[in-house]
Amino acid sequence: MTTTQPSPTAAGSGSSATEAFRATRADSGAPQVSTERIAAVVSSLLAGIHDTIRTQAVTYDEFQAAKGFLIEVGEGGEWPLLLDVLVEHVVEDVASRSRTGTKGSILGPYYLPGQPRLDSPATLPQRPDEKGTALVFSGQVRDTEGNPLPGAEIDIWQADEQGYYSGFAPHIPEGNLRAVVVADDQGRFEIHTIEPAPYQIPTDGPTGKLLGAAGWHPWRPAHLHLLVRAPGKRTVTTQLYFRGGEWLDSDVASATKPELILDPVEVGDGTHAVEYDFTLEPA
Ligand code: DHB
Ligand code: FE
């Protein structure tokens, strides 16, 4: 049962997520947002906030409590956690309007670029005594015409059997359960790993406290994170879930999609296996 797990701590994840975000953002080469666009989006955002204050008749006490909360989110380094869990799914939804191919899902706060490249078939780096059901995850990466994409890359990261991510939990070795797996000349890949546990937003930080104060649970269903890329193709950012998994129908991050649910089968020795193919559209 997931409820017997040790609780994740905000200290281990929040501020590390802020550092990871800053490091990736610094070299993203993203263009400056125009004055017109800032004015349009910020006006609309403020209109939404003003409207909420009017319709909910927000009091001075509540306004000051909100300020205190926002200060704590910043001090705890939890902006990536808070925004990715409560907001990113809508940004992804808008981005996916113009996309074909494999469905996307949110990136989340725990991606770390620059992991080792391993040729398929590959075993994800893991502790000698890594707990959890062994999982063989295989498939093929193709273009929208069905042609295989040789040398496609599957950049994969996941929580362990207790729901913790390496890089964001001090007790896990760096790089654990993370790698960039390079597909073969038929775009095929085979990845040996373990099934992750559901993930819990740390309950001792401001994000977790807000969820608790609103009476919402802090859980995401178990998932694998993936960035699937190939030369000349648009990278797919997605997540894969597990059929029958707890919290599938009430993901706190609202990031599940029916097309993204795996159904692994037992293949002996307690090992599970599942195939999933990816389709990448032109860049
Ligand atoms: C968060 C954590 C995740 O593992 C994820 O996939 C999405 C969001 C979060 O804590 O915000
Ligand atoms: Fe995650």
TrEMBL record:
Q: Which InterPro entries match?
A: 1_2-CTD_multi_dom (IPR043029), Catechol_dOase_N (IPR007535), Cchol_dOase_actb (IPR012800), Intradiol_dOase_C (IPR000627), Intradiol_dOase_core (IPR015889), Intradiol_RC_Dioxygenase (IPR050770)
Name the needed cofactors.
Answer: Fe(3+)
Q: What domain of life is recorded for the organism?
A: Bacteria
Q: Where is this region: Disordered?
A: 1-33, 105-130
Q: Which GO terms describe its molecular function?
A: catechol 1,2-dioxygenase activity
**Which ranges carry the Intradiol ring-cleavage dioxygenases domain?**
137-165
Keyword list, A-Z = Dioxygenase, Iron, Metal-binding, Oxidoreductase
List the biased-composition ranges (Low complexity): 1-20
EC number(s) on file: 1.13.11.1
- Its family? Belongs to the intradiol ring-cleavage dioxygenase family.
Name of the protein in question: Catechol 1,2-dioxygenase
Which organism's genome codes for this protein? Pseudonocardia lutea
